[in-house]
Write a structure and sequence with these properties.
This protein has 30 helices and 19 strands. The protein is 50% helix and 14% strand. The chain folds into five domains: 193 residues, Orthogonal Bundle (Hypothetical protein af1432); 143 residues, Beta Polymerase, domain 2, CATH 3.30.460.10; 76 residues, Ubiquitin-like (UB roll), CATH 3.10.20.30; 158 residues, no CATH class; 76 residues, ACT domain (Alpha-Beta Plaits, 2-Layer Sandwich).
Length: 727
């Protein structure tokens, strides 16, 4: 039973609910009112009034200023019960059901966040707020809660006033803007401004008040002729003088370094049309522009292209009587409701039940977008429960200095590195999670503290693209890969063009495409990259194209025949030159190279391939670049052999697999260098889960030397497999 002194308050609340809500469960609201009143009956606010007045006023704001539904009103009445009284969540759930209990629980959790964290990064904590919420109504209640606290802030000590005002300006006001709650946002900003910059607030308020009559007189003079003309056109509308928000004026004065007199949009009006036809807005704009000179650069059409939060309106600035500038907004009543009440208006304006509202769906997608959460799944039953669950898949990690970073679930240290800065991501070589070095593909968990280890010599590993999950990391890595491929392709093309120029040859792109497609190379870029990285021998393709029949002019055919003839003569002389001699012998002096595509070393079975201008290239007999040519063009293949003695070092690559553990890489490199001081050229190691894979390039004398090194590596604990790598 409600005490007589509070009966009027309950009646007022129910009356507001009936006026603003589509449906009202009066029993639900009455029971919530009664429980809240009894729970807080012994508590007082800083002002000395009963504490119950606070949840009551919060419920009134939810019902009147950001109306959604009766569940929101009941939850607003109960939002402080679990936090401040002897009632717990089980009591709320038993009495009011799971939905109300979940909303109250969400509001309590948000309060706990601000009690335990110093707010240093507003955007991060806005995200953290949303992550705690499964139901959007929690946020609407928190906006109402904060709005009433700010309206009564003068009763708190100055230090607390400053803290709450800063918190409101940094977090709640921008977040209210995200939800499209314009009126709530503006009032929160002005109240925060009042307590953070009181002298400036009072000065602007005083100046505006002193000129209020002057402004009203001018606006009346401006709109009079327009009203008459619109009446003639049969346009039904409401004219609203737009109150200028003090914080907005202050920001413009600071940003433009101008006094209040020179802030030109202090004259502002809004036309709210009683129509459902958006074209009427443009009709009104045409009338106003015809009667007053418009400023073209100040025209904005948010009707054709709405803002992301659903805001629609026409904005324009015109030169009014006396040469003064007037800012004008034109919108329909439905647009006005959405502009003022945001997501609550989206809810209230839908007449269809149980179906998905496309406009509301777009708004939800926007919320996802602004927080960079890429999720293509569409919410199914938005109008039924309005649950968003937007951030159930986020984790919260910290920098070494304790700064908060929010990442998607399954994020890795590489994602974190790019989140810090693209240069940190590009040069990342390792990471410490909670003080321990971990592989770069380690999955992070909420609460982890990360330190990224960088090196100016490090570049992104293309394999990173396989495990990063953030759009930022993936975009940077792919952009780097594409840029590197382009650079390598340019190098390969330059090599190819120089070879053609040296031999005074020219082939069309079509002829080249036919040859590379026969060799199963995807495209020209891949072809040039393969050449640049010594995985393809350009001489083989040049020689293949020389002997390939071509349609040509008579002179061209003659030139081709002559070139082919010269080539055949060179092959014959080369075969005679190398017959019966060792490749590295000193008795015969001829040009030769080791093919980089297979990197032969003494002990490998080898063959020579005759090229034009570069002598003989030495390949392994099982090299993919010559094995297909051996039968068809055997005249180019020459027999070569290694000398009996040789002191040179040769490059070879090995691939190593094993179980990842601390110190493994150090043990492997020690095993290599311990055999005849074998030199290592480079190491590339990649860890995945509990396993690692790496490529090591080193210098060896011959196959026996390589075999001994491989054997030593196999003895290292944790190594599962070692094999020679040919690219």
């Amino acid at each position: 039973m409600v005490d007589a002194q509070f009966k009027n308050k309950l009646d007022d609340l129910l009356s507001v609910c009936r006026k603003n809500l589509r449906a009202v469960d009066e029993d639900l609201i009455t029971r919530a009112f009664t429980l809240s009143l009894n729970a807080h009956k012994n508590d007082l606010r800083a002002s000395g009034e009963p504490y119950f007045y606070h949840p009551y006023e919060v419920a009134m704001i939810v019902a009147k200023e950001i109306p959604l539904d009766d569940v929101s009103v009941a939850s607003a009445l109960l939002h402080d019960v679990v936090e401040d009284t002897t009632f717990d969540l089980k009591d709320i759930r038993a009495e009011f059901g799971g939905t109300v209990a979940d909303i109250v629980d969400g509001a309590t959790k948000i309060t706990d966040i601000f009690r335990s964290h110093e707010v240093t990064q507003a955007e991060s904590y806005r995200k953290l707020l949303l992550s705690m919420v499964n139901d959007v109504r929690v946020m609407l209640i928190k906006f109402a809660d904060r709005l009433h606290n700010m309206r009564t802030l003068e009763y708190l000590p100055p230090e607390k006033q400053q803290r709450l005002a800063r918190e409101t300006l940094d977090i709640y006001a921008p977040f209210a803007h995200r939800f499209g709650l314009a009126k709530v946002k503006w009032e929160l900003e002005d109240l925060s401004f009042k307590f953070l910059h009181r002298p400036e607030y009072d000065q602007i308020a005083r100046q505006l008040k002193s000129r209020r009559r002057e402004r009203e007189h001018y606006i009346k003079k401006f709109v009079g002729p327009i009203e008459k003309r619109l009446d003639e056109e049969g346009v039904s509308f409401e004219l609203e003088g737009r109150p200028k928000h003090l914080f907005s004026i202050y920001n413009k004065m600071v940003r433009r370094s101008k006094p209040l007199d020179e802030i030109y949009d202090l004259f502002a009006v809004r036309f709210i049309l009683d129509t459902k036809d958006n074209n009427d807005c443009f009709l009104v704009y045409g009338v106003i522009s015809e009667m007053n000179k418009p400023i073209p650069e100040r025209f904005k059409d948010y009707i054709s292209i709405p803002k992301k939060n659903g805001y629609q309106s026409i904005h324009t600035t015109v030169v009014g009587p006396g040469g003064k500038l007037v800012e004008v907004q034109i919108r329909t009543r439905a647009m006005h409701e959405i502009a003022e009440k945001g997501v609550a208006a989206h809810w209230m304006y839908k007449e269809s039940k149980g179906s998905i509202d496309k406009e509301l769906e777009q708004w939800v997608s926007w919320v996802r977008e602004i927080f960079e959460q890429k999720n293509e799944d569409t919410p199914k039953e938005l109008l039924e429960s309005f649950k968003l669950n937007l951030y159930q898949d986020e984790i919260y990690v910290f920098t070494p200095k304790g700064d908060l970073r929010i990442l998607p679930r399954n994020a890795t240290p590489v994602d974190f590195a790019f989140e810090i800065h693209s240069n940190v991501g590009f040069h990342c070589i390792g990471a410490k999670v909670n003080g321990r070095i971990v592989p770069l593909n380690t999955l992070l968990r909420s609460g982890d503290q990360l330190e990224i280890i960088t090196s100016k010599n490090q570049n992104p590993n293309p394999d990173w693209d396989k495990f990063v999950v953030t759009h930022k990391a993936r975009a940077h890595i792919r952009r780097w890969i594409h840029e590197e491929e382009r650079k390598r392709a340019d190098v390969g093309k330059d090599i190819w063009d120089k070879k053609l120029k040296r031999h005074k040859l020219h082939f069309s792109e079509d002829d080249l495409l036919k040859v590379i497609h026969n060799a199963r190379v995807e495209n020209l870029q891949k072809f040039y990259i393969e050449i640049a990285e010594d995985r393809l021998d350009p001489d083989i393709f040049i020689e293949d194209m020389i002997v390939r029949p071509k349609t040509a002019t008579e002179d061209g055919a003659k030139a081709e025949d002559e070139t082919g003839s010269l080539f055949r003569k060179f092959i014959t002389s080369a075969r005679e030159l190398t017959s019966g001699i060792s490749l590295l012998g000193t008795t015969d002096n001829f040009l030769h190279q080791y093919a980089k595509c297979c990197n032969p070393i003494p002990g490998d079975e080898i063959v020579g391939f005759v090229t034009i201008g570069e002598g003989i290239k030495v390949h392994r007999k099982d090299c993919k670049n010559v094995i297909s040519k051996r039968m068809a063009e055997s005249e180019r293949i020459v027999d070569v052999s290694w000398p009996l003695a040789n002191a040179a070092d040769f490059i070879v690559a090995i691939r190593v697999y094993g179980k990842d553990r601390s110190g493994l890489l150090s043990d492997v490199t020690h095993a290599i260098s311990s055999y005849q001081n074998t030199n290592i050229r480079s190491v590339n190691i990649d860890s995945r889960a509990s396993l690692f894979e790496g490529q090591i390039i080193l210098f060896v004398k011959n196959t026996e030397h390589l075999s001994r090194v491989v054997d030593k590596i196999r003895r290292v604990p944790g190594i599962l497999e070692v094999e020679r790598f040919f690219g």
